[in-house]
Write a structure and sequence with these properties.
It is built from 26 helices and eleven strands. With about 625 residues, it is α+β, with helices and mostly antiparallel strands. It has two domains: about 280 residues, Collagenase (Catalytic Domain); about 180 residues, Neutral endopeptidase, domain 2 (Orthogonal Bundle), CATH 1.10.1380. The strands form four sheets. Strands 2-3-5-4 form a four-stranded mixed beta sheet. Helix 8 packs across helix 12 and helix 22 crosses helix 25. It is globular and about 75 Å long.
Length: about 625
């Protein structure tokens, strides 16, 4: 803590400023806090597990230990990877170079998608937004090399400079590959796709990406693509599916009809190189890092090899590695304690809903029905994925990446056309994060985030409710933010609001938009309130829900002052310390453009300045910076 600061003036600095000053952002990170430090500690734990497992070479083939141990060993074999250079990629590059007909082009697109190179569109699996008990195929926009569509068009100098650097990066990557393809050709191709793509704010509206159609309609929408061949190779049925952005798919169809095969070859070659570069030899890894991490995010140096290998193992074989992680680092008692916190916070939100002055009884009834159907998942899946048929070798890293990628693609495709499996997880057990899925009305907290400083089984309620408790409240609140509130208790994209209550809700949400429009990261550059609306509503409500649950816990088990701070003050300090990231300015600029999360400073200052309980805890005067005037105070939930 920086006790020279006034908590009522700048709580972000007061709660965590001294820690940030003593712990600058490491050269390999784009942001840093006790929370991000804990995430890196998780990776160190994965390393310890992987190094321990990979020392043995006699594990049973197809077992968890053989898979993750040999994968990690192959990734750490830098000598072999350097000797191979671009050779591992040659079979796919040769297929691209051999494209001589429309049929060849279709076959290569299918092959790239098989190995999770999603160009020029992405095909995934998700519950039907209107009948979530079934899983359908979902076709989304993809195939851009810049962070989002606006990077291709915005006229501010930083976007102009980024486009120039991107083209130079492409040219350098082509040169490394010994290719003579034109970066300008590829950029023009991507720009045409970007023009047909929705922007980040539009993508936040579930209705904007809700376009159910049958196979015949899909064929009419993009007649130059061989959908029958794609569906057959992917083992999908010709049933109803969702096309997120029909305009984008029509743009892809125009490219198929009008763009030369030579330009298609260049585009596909670039997309493959960009996707594969982090897993190739040093020159490709460094070039990829130089643009995507150093230029765009301001990161000074790459993470060490072992850390990148551990992260890749987690990304591609996450539930295999996760089984070993939870065995060692997440005891059953921790799971039980977090489950109790979740139950208490669901009860707290129920009390809040019942007391809302702006919501009518019929809408309240529906809100409570939805709240009652929440499905909390804590720690790890009840049923683990079976990776036993994935062929992993100690001497072929790129082939391992391909094998694991194919497994993940096929495993997801296999869910299409079947009843939705509510036991599936969207994050690996060691992930230091959490999420809400509106289609399943579930809140998910992997074991990786249930570690200090977010959660400690030996910590007081003040600390646990103030840190992980606000995260729990945040994820619960996503069921009732501007997006989640559009889904009903069954996860259907259906309106359950009375018109006057919906209007009141939207008016309160506009208050949040205005508040965050006023938060600048540097002169002339402020947040987009509409972009961060959902996360900000969830932050506001999360803090309120967690504090109410904490107050109830204090009634049952009173806590004393610690280090001169009341339990209520400890609660807010815990949140300020968990959320108090320092963030590189380059990363902040990137976030303001495309991240639905505000930068950490305003995730601390914004919600707490609306919360009367914070004002009371620190005896802040009405005119203090951390107290928004009553007329400007935002309160959604």
């Amino acid at each position: 803590m920086d006790r020279t600061q006034d908590p009522c003036t700048d709580f972000y600095t007061y709660a965590n400023g001294a820690w940030r000053a003593a712990n600058p952002i490491p050269p390999s990170m784009d942001r840093w806090s006790r929370r991000w430090q804990a995430g890196e500690t998780n990776t160190e734990r994965l390393k310890d597990l992987l190094e321990e497992i990979s020392k043995r070479t006699d594990w049973p083939t197809g077992g968890v230990e053989q898979l993750v141990g040999d994968f990690y060993a192959s990734c750490m074999d830098e000598v072999r990877i350097e000797q191979a250079g671009l050779t591992p990629l040659q079979p796919l590059l040769s297929q691209i170079d051999a494209i001589a007909s429309a049929a060849d082009l279709q076959r290569v697109i299918r092959r790239l998608q098989d190995v999770d190179v999603s160009v020029p569109f992405a095909v995934g699996a998700r519950p039907d937004q209107h009948l979530p008990t079934r899983t359908i195929a979902d076709i989304g926009a993809s195939g851009l090399g810049l962070p989002d569509r606006d990077y291709y068009f915005k006229t501010e100098e930083r976007f102009v400079a980024t486009r120039k650097e991107y083209r130079a990066h492409m040219a350098r990557m082509f040169a490394l590959a010994g290719a003579v393809d034109s970066a300008e050709t590829v950029f023009a191709f991507e720009k045409r796709l970007a023009e047909a793509s929705l922007d980040n704010v539009a993508l936040r509206d579930p209705k904007a990406t809700d376009h159910l159609m049958g196979f015949d309609e899909l064929q009419k929408l993009a007649p130059h693509f061989d959908w029958a061949g794609y569906i057959a190779q992917a083992h999908l049925s010709r049933q109803t599916l969702n096309v997120e952005e029909p305009k984008f798919l029509q743009a892809v169809d125009r490219e198929l009809a009008q763009t030369s095969l030579a330009d298609w070859r260049s585009y596909l070659k670039w997309q493959l190189l960009a996707s594969a570069a982090p897993e190739l030899s040093k020159a490709f890894v460094e070039e990829s890092f130089a643009f995507n991490r150093k230029y765009l995010a301001g990161i000074a140096e790459m993470k060490p090899r072992w850390k990148r290998c551990a992260e890749t193992a987690d990304r591609l074989l996450g539930e295999a590695l996760g089984r070993k992680y939870v065995e060692r680092y997440f005891p059953p008692a921790a799971k039980a304690r977090v489950q109790a916190l979740v139950r208490n916070e669901l009860t707290a939100l129920r009390q809040i809903i019942l007391a809302l002055p702006w919501m009518g009884p019929k809408t309240k009834e529906q809100a409570l029905v939805k709240l009652a159907t929440f499905n909390p998942k804590v720690g790890y899946p009840d049923k683990w994925k079976d990776y036993s048929k994935v062929e992993i070798r100690r001497d072929a890293y790129w082939l391992n990446v391909v094998a694991a990628s194919e497994f993940n693609v096929n495993e997801a495709r296999a869910t299409v056309g079947k009843p939705t499996d509510r036991g599936r997880w969207g994050m690996t057990p060691s992930t230091s994060n959490a999420y809400y899925n509106p289609l399943l009305n579930e809140i998910v907290f992997p074991a990786g985030i249930l570690q200090p400083p977010a959660f400690d089984i030996d910590a007081t309620d003040a600390v646990n409710y103030g840190a992980i408790g606000v995260v729990i409240g945040h994820e619960i609140s996503h069921g009732f933010d501007d997006q989640g509130a559009q889904y009903d208790a069954q996860g259907r994209l259906e309106n359950w609001w009375a018109p006057e209550d919906l209007a009141a809700f939207q008016g309160r949400a506009e208050c949040v938009v205005r508040q965050f429009d006023g938060y600048f990261i540097e002169p002339g550059l402020h947040h987009n309130g509409k972009l961060v609306l959902g996360e900000s509503i969830a932050d506001f409500a999360g803090a309120r829900i967690a504090f109410l649950a904490f107050q109830k816990a204090l009634e049952d088990a009173p806590e004393a002052k610690r280090d001169g701070f009341t339990p209520e003050q400890q609660f807010f300090i815990a949140w300020g310390q968990f959320r108090g990231d320092a963030t590189r300015i380059e990363t902040q600029r990137k976030m303001v453009q495309g991240d639905p999360h505000p930068v950490a400073k305003y995730r601390v200052l914004g919600p707490l300045s609306n919360l009367p309980a914070f004002q009371q805890a620190f005896a802040c005067q009405p005119a203090a910076a951390m107290v928004r005037p009553v007329g400007a105070r935002c309160e959604v939930w």
